[in-house]
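DM from R.C. (forwarded with permission)

"hey, sorry to bug you on a friday — could you get me a structure for this? deadline for the figure draft is monday and I only need the backbone to look sensible"
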Amino acid sequence: MNISHTKPNKYKLILKLVSAVCIGFLTASCSYSTDEQTVAREKNSTTSNAIKNANALYCSTDSQDVQLDLTNTKLVREQNIPLMYQGYNNIEGPVWYKGALYYSNMGSHEPDETGFELSNQTTIWRWVVGSKPQVWMKDTDAGTNGLALDSKGNLIVTRQLDGSISLVDWQTQHVTPITKAYQNKRFNSPNDLTIGYDDTVYFTDPNWNTPSNINVADIQGGGQAGSTEPGQRIYRLSRSKTVNDEITGVVKATKVTALVPALRDKPNGIILSLDQQQLLVGGLQGLWVFDLQSGEVANPKQLLNTPIDGLGKDCSGNIYVTTTREIPERKDGQVVVILDKQHQEVGMLKVPGIHIVTNIAFGGDDRRTLFVTGLTAPMDGNKRRQCGDKACLKAGIYTAKLNVEGFPY
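My reply, with the result:
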């Protein structure tokens, strides 16, 4: 036997076997990676289609391509909007549903015989444009702030009355709480909310509208205006039904206030972007946008540094921000600032005569009427509150006709 020729042949055989094993392993790995990528693409496609279908409830085909034109557009104050309370009134949380605007009207009861004043009580009004608004829910039942619609048209509300996120039946006005607490403590006073394509609810929970009959030791807490003390948060609520058709909710605190402690200072307006890939949140210290993936927020970016109340959006993806800005008429001018999908400012609408502008909704038969709400505390100490060089008008509603369609809350 010629040994000098046998060993190389043996080594060649071993090398071939090793190569075959490696190639097989790499092929399997590549195949596995390809399978993962395929699943991810299919999931993203399914989610994208679900978001498009959710948007289609309010936006007609190709509406996202319409360019907003504010030429000669001004907000007009609506007349004959009744108010429920003496003195301070706040009109908030408007939502358009089946031909009518529903909105919260917040205020305080007159002091009782002991001098106790029950604050932050809320009535819901229903207004068919062209007629006088009618009380839809009394404050003993409503107690709401933000009003919104889920994918089935159900009315989902934030309630400071009991610190809950609840479903309100359109026919009976029966209230079904979905969640009331976090870590076994009542929420402060749930304020604003936005609802995703899968009916996930994101909501803010500042502590400044908690009714005066609630013990502060029983709520999440937080500091006064200007403070970043923990306690005021932004939450994510996932809903499901039990076998008995009872609605349950799983609530989780988002990382919003961990990433941006400034949003512990009275977090307020909140909204999803048109593609639901971002979450925008405002508070006393400004407006931030976060990337959103699988319900988790990341990469905060500040967009505005003025006090923010409510947020709205149109079918072109523009975001409408109610805020305060110095204008020629007054240093604390009340305005709606409009940002495009790249978060560049594309316009501003003044809200004349109001103390503070609060929120946004689109409605009307063609969903092109912009509704803007506002509050007024008529007294500033012992003097009439001034909005510019005139006394502030009462809380009210303003409207403008736009060339774009928008969302109902």
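R.C.: lifesaver. Confidence is low (pLDDT under 50) at residues 1-7.
me: no worries. The longest helix spans residues 3-55.
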